[in-house]
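Researcher: Please predict.
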Amino acid sequence: MKAQEKITKLVCSDCKRINYHTQKNKKLVERKLEFKKFCKWCRKHTIHKEGKK
């Protein structure tokens, strides 16, 4: 793993639970990550945003 790549948490926008982890290169990507993924707690596809560390 390079020095600028860090693991980030993806948090469900509905239930606020951490469901996924991903890597992000902080030098190349300046904005917050946002994906539409399946939440096993809500049992539906919701927007998952990058959470705090």
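Model: Strands lie at 5-12, 18-25, 34-39, 44-50.
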